[in-house]
Specification:
The complex is a heterodimer of chains A (111) and B (114). With 111 residues, chain A is an all-beta fold. Chain A contains no helices and eleven strands. Chain A is globular and about 40 Å long. Chain A starts with a strand and ends with a strand. Classes of the chains: A mainly beta (111), B mainly beta (114).
């Protein structure tokens, strides 16, 4: 079945850039998402990208998609301590369908 | 963005009792709502897909008689955990979407069964 893989941990220093990587297997994926989960909280949609795009930038966030390799990345520029959280990559076939999540990458930002 | 609420945010109950969790889309009509379960330090697992006015579709391994889902209107879906047991303790998160929108998640409900 479909699978989404992420590295489990990433540790960076405040002010550095963070890059969180994700790979997926479903070539029919139409939407790819990044969600942020802070301790004890639900999910916050950070950004999403359509499969016909290569890149999307939104303030400090840059999403890169390599559809050939089924590789998605999230770059956070000037990482802050408030960015410490779990980041989930998810894929979907179309708007309105269930998402398949990776296991999440725990980002730890030290000052 | 669209807002999805859940109530209650936290509930503690005794083993054997039933617990109802509500999921509401506050500013849009959700044709579809999803219920996910998240164990500590793990990813979200889809439990069921709920379409307004029809029976929910449950994922394999999810007991439909234990996790009752009702999607009575375009803005409300409920999940009832019947005869809850300690192993049902978890973080339950709903999401809602319309046909044109991406999914928006509720803040989650933490259930602790004693």
């Amino acid at each position: 079945g479909e699978d989404v893989e992420q590295s489990l941990f990433l540790s960076v220093r405040e002010g550095d850039s963070s890059v969180i990587n994700c790979t997926y297997t479903d070539s029919s994926s139409t939407y790819l998402y990044w969600y942020k989960q802070e301790p004890g909280a639900g999910l916050q949609l950070l950004t999403y990208i359509f499969s016909n795009m290569d890149m999307k930038q939104d303030q400090r966030l840059t999403v890169l998609l390599n559809k050939k390799d089924k590789h998605l990345s999230l770059r956070i520029a000037d990482t802050q301590t408030g960015d410490s959280a779990i980041y989930f990559c998810a894929e979907g076939n179309q708007a309105g369908t269930a998402l398949i999540f990776g296991k999440g990458t725990t980002l730890s930002v030290s000052s | 963005g669209a807002v999805v609420s859940q109530h209650p945010s936290r509930v503690i109950c005794k083993s054997g009792t039933s617990v109802k969790i509500e999921c509401r889309s506050l500013d849009f009509q959700a044709t579809t709502m999803f219920w996910y379960r998240q164990f500590p330090k793990q990813s979200l697992m889809l439990m069921a897909t709920s379409n307004e006015g029809s029976k929910a579709t449950y994922e394999q391994g999810v007991e439909k008689d234990k996790f009752l889902i009702n999607h009575a209107s375009l803005t409300l879906s409920t999940l009832t955990v019947t005869s809850a047991h300690p192993e049902d303790s978890s973080f339950y998160i709903c999401s809602a979407s319309s046909a044109e929108e991406t999914q928006y998640f509720g803040p989650g409900t933490r259930l602790l069964v004693l």
